[in-house]
């Protein structure tokens, strides 16, 4: 059985990317901001095979 990310995970990635943007002093989110937080948010959902 495999599980994907929940809606709460999507919201957590969004909020994390916005926080990363704020801390970097920008007013726009970049794809790198999303990549930087996605692993931390989704880490518990990744299944190695």
What can you tell me about this protein's structure?
- With 49 residues, this protein is an all-alpha fold.
- The chain has one domain (7-45).
- It is 59% helix and 0% strand.
- It has helices at 7-23, 31-42.
- Helix 1 (7-23) crosses helix 2 (31-42).
- It is elongated and about 40 Å long.
Q: What order do the SSEs take from the amino end to the carboxyl end, as H and E?
A: HH
Q: How many domains, as an integer?
A: 1
Please give the radius of gyration in angstroms. Answer: 12 Å
What is the CA–CA distance across the termini? 12 Å
Percent helix: 55-70%
Helix count equals 2
Percent strand equals: under 5%
Largest sheet: none
Q: Which spans of ≥5 residues are poorly predicted at pLDDT below 50?
A: none
Based on DSSP secondary structure assignment, what is the total number of beta strands? 0
Supply the helix-strand structural class: mainly alpha
What's the overall average pLDDT, rounded? Answer: 85
Q: What general form does the structure show? A: elongated
Give a topology summary.
Elements: H1 7-23, H2 31-42
Helix pairs in contact: 1-2
Kindly list the characteristics that best describe this protein.
mainly alpha; elongated; 0% strand; 49 residues
């Amino acid at each position: 059985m495999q599980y994907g990310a929940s809606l709460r995970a999507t919201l957590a990635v969004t909020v994390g990317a916005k926080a990363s943007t704020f801390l970097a002093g920008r007013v726009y989110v970049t794809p790198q901001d999303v990549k930087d937080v996605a692993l931390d948010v989704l880490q518990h959902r990744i299944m190695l095979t």
